[in-house]
Amino acid sequence: MINTNIKMVGLFEKEVETMPRITRLAKAAEPARTNGPTLRFFGTMNGESESHTNAVFFPDPNTIVFIDSSMLNVYRQRSLIKNSLIKSVYCCITHTHDDHASGAGRLAWCTHHLQPGHELTFLVDATVKNDLIGKLTREGVIEKSTDEGPIYNLMEYVHYGKAWVFNDRYGNCNPRLLKPDWFIGTIPTDHTPRLNGATGFAFKVDGKLIIYSGDTNTIAPFVRFIERTTGQANYDAETPIELYLDVEVRESTSHLQFAKVKAELAKLLAKYPTMRIILMHYEHYTKLAYEVDKTFGGQFAKRISLAEPTSFC
Length: 313
Ligand SMILES: [Zn+2]
Ligand SMILES: [Zn+2]
What we know:
The protein is of the alpha/beta class and 313 residues long. Helices cover 33% and strands 26% of the residues.
């Protein structure tokens, strides 16, 4: 049951084989038509693997949104930016561990050179901003920008009282920074104590509510976010929800462990009939797939699956 996505990805790749390369790359980043998950993945595993969990979606034909950028994936991200239709490039950074942000500076440069006048915009939570700026500065990205003009924008999502605002990288509220219509917000979470912050993201894409945990050792902020969002008077109960969650089989202080979180996942699937859960950032595909199949082999089998990497070349 857990392997339905593999079949779907296989068909998808066969179909795009004969297309011109650029079209093929763009096509590979689109959501699968067979009701597959909206996000496509460059990699789906943890930082110790060769398949770092970084994702992508196209909210419209002119816009590409990456979630995190590892050096392992940055050149495949670069290939997608080459698509001439792309006018806006965003990268949402969940936190600054290497498997999520080691490619961030390189991605800014690639965007700057490939799309003159359309600089990369990093979208970060206020808690992650200083970690990211420190990292980019150490890589010489900011210093270089004083010679050649800014090579990236940074939108910092800050909660002031009851209003969310965007600041630029200097901490100034910048009226030019408009909230993209696919962006709902950040979801601060706990991951490891040595980071200033780690966040998940919420998006609205193709009428779906997308919740992306990033690396997290707790599910609570995401459950609260979903409860709050779906509890609003204007929320449509038919809206499909996709919850992408960092889950491993082994015990960990930095990530969710499947054995400890499975009861909560079952509760969520029962409470929200439109929800689909996609597990990512795992350490071992087969072991996790086995556990998922064993636990959710019955009524929820089609609504919980493991993220699958997409072949973009
Ligand atoms: Zn990670
Ligand atoms: Zn991490």
